[in-house]
Every structure is written in C-alpha cells, then in structure tokens.
Amino acid sequence: MTVIVRELRPDVPADTEGFARVRRLALPYILFTSDSVRHTATHLHPDARYRPLIAEEDGEVIGTAQVHLVHDSPEAGQACLNVYVRPDRTHRGAGRLLVKAGEEYLAAQGATKLLAWALDEPANHAFAERRGYTRGRSGHFLRLDLANGALPPLPAVPPGVELHTAADFTDDPRPLFELDAETVLDEPSDVATEFTDYEAWVEETWKHPLLNHELTTVAVVDGRPAAFTVAYTDGEGRYSTAMTGTARAHRGRGLAKLVKNDSLRRARAAGCTEAFTGNDTGNGPMLAINKWLGYEICATEVRYVRELG
Fold first, then answer.
1. Residue 151: inside a domain, yes or no?
2. Is 0.70 surpassed by the pTM of this model?
C-alpha cells in the first residue's frame, strides 16, 4: 500500500468530504464539513497562498495539511502548517510526507517561521521535535453537553444594552467587522493579527457556510455592537463559538457572559446537543466564563515553532 500526497481539489466532493472526515476523526473539537473545506480553499485571501494537501492510501484520504502564510499579521514571514492523520491510519508515513511537502511549499513562498498545532500527546511531541520544532504556547478545547447540562441563569441585561443577532446586520455587517477587528488585537496568541480588509472579511468570515447568523449574539450599545459571540453550527447538532469578544470601552460589564449564555440557550432551543470552544491556556477571564457556563476541558493542544534558515 502506497501513500501519496497531493493538493486538494475543492471542486471534487470526494476530496472535500475526505478532508473533513479526517479532521473530524483526528480533531473532533473543531467543526468541519465538506462545504467549509471547499469555502476555505476557494475564499481564503490570495496573499495567504493557501494550499490544502491530502495524503491518500489506495485512493482513500487518510491525512490532511492546512498550509498557508499568515498574511494578516504585521510580522512578515510567518506561516502555518497544521497536519492531521486519521487515528486509525497512523504509522504509514502520511504525516511525514505532508510535513515535507508543506515545508517545501512554504519555504518557496518566503516563509521564515513555521507554526504548527499538535494535540498534547507524547507521540505528537516526539514527531514535532524530531523535525526541529520547539514547543510554544498551548490551548484548551472545551466541551459542554447542551442536551443534558444545565446552563446558569441568564444575567440581567444592563441598562442601555440591547441583545441582537448577526442576522440583524445582514444589510450592513461592517459594524461587526469593526468589532471583530478591535477584539482580535487583544486575543492571546503567539501570532499578532490585524483585520484591515473588509471585503476579504466578508468573503472569508461573514459568508462562511458554518457561521450561524441567527445564533450569533450581539450586545448593542447606542446603536453599535459592543460585544459578541460568534456561533458556528454543522447541521448535525454540533455548535461552536469561534470568537467571543467585547469592545475595550465596554469591558467589565459582564457582556461576554451575557452574549455567550444567550447564544447557548438559543442553540439548545434550536436543537444543538453539544457545544465546543477553545481558549489559550493563559486566557484566564474566558476560561473562567466558560467554566461558569459548564464547559469542561476535553483536550489540549500545543503550538510548535520552527525557524527556517
């Protein structure tokens, strides 16, 4: 049996479905569907030079790699190389071949620093360190049983605050873009990110097939979004918050708790049965909010870094 690595074909359902299947099996805490794989492959900003790779064994997709430059960072030369192999198809060389192909491609695009996430497991640590990657920061995945768990009472809405959904901004989502651009600047990360391209944000984020406008809750103050929690759903009962943030001028008022609790309640009413989220291990405030909501840590991942000569 021979393993080969090639570029994903976004217009071929077998490729996008296989990619999504591998990601769900290897990392079930992040929502992936065939449509979302296709959307990312065709709508990520051209400057990212995105190249999704798949590893095949006898025509079956057994591994994937998301390979791209971090185009929206003020620090040039950074790139991401995230490789996942089906848990029941490891030790066949797929991971090694995907890493090799990804590194060669990114080096040719001018990358000088490679960043890769790996689940916090001994075999993954050994794999990364053998290839010259060093351990960096870490993050937790958290899960909440929406079908059986009890949510805390919904906090009182502060005076002057109104709860809306992203669907209320369909005609003009720019205010949500501006809030997203402000809050991402303060998100704990080893990669600084700046959102400056509104049209690209609309194509990549606002039109993402998993973004649920009706379940994305927005706290509005004086007609402007002040806090939000971004909800993704996969149509199979799974819900995930991709981002929860509050504008700097409105922090300390409990708005993050309010919007996240509200979104979870409406997600449960809409038939979602389990919720996922992720936090940097150093993000104490959000970890405390998620613990209050009933989330429990279900896995941890580590960011590995390799400097290219």
1. yes
2. yes
Residue 107 and residue 165 share a domain: no
Return the structure tokens found at 104: 């060669």
Residue 119 lies in a domain: no
* Bridge partners of residue 135, in order along the sequence: 304
pLDDT digits (tens, 9 = 90+) for 32-41: 999 999 999 9
53 touches 37 (CB < 8 A): no
> pLDDT band at residue 185, thresholds of 50, 70 and 90?
confident
How many other CB atoms are there within 10 angstroms of residue 159's CB atom?
Answer: 5
Range of the structural domain that residue 63 is part of: 3-111
Domain count, the chain: 2
Dist CA 106 CA 50 (whole Å):
10
Q: Is residue 117 part of a domain?
A: no
Is residue 265 domain-shared with residue 177, that is, in the same domain?
yes
Same domain, 25 and 155: no
For 19, the enclosing helix (H) or strand (E) is: helix 13-26
DSSP helix, strand, coil percent of the chain (3-state; round to 5): 35, 30, 35
CA dihedral over 187, 81, 39, 194, signed as positive or negative: positive
Residue 23: name the closest of 117, 142, 100 by CA: 117
- Residue 309 domain flag: no
What CATH number should be reported for the domain holding residue 249? 3.40.630.30
Name every residue whose Cβ is closer than 8 Å to that of residue 56 and which is 6 or more positions away in sequence.
Answer: 3, 4, 5, 6, 62
1, 4, 278, 287: which is closest to 141 by C-alpha?
A: 278
Whole-number pLDDT of residue 74: 81
Helix/strand/coil for 39: helix
The CA distance from 43 to 20, in Å, is: 17
Residues in Cβ contact with 248 at an 8 Å cutoff, skipping those fewer than 6 apart: 182, 186
Q: What is the mean pLDDT of the chain?
A: 95
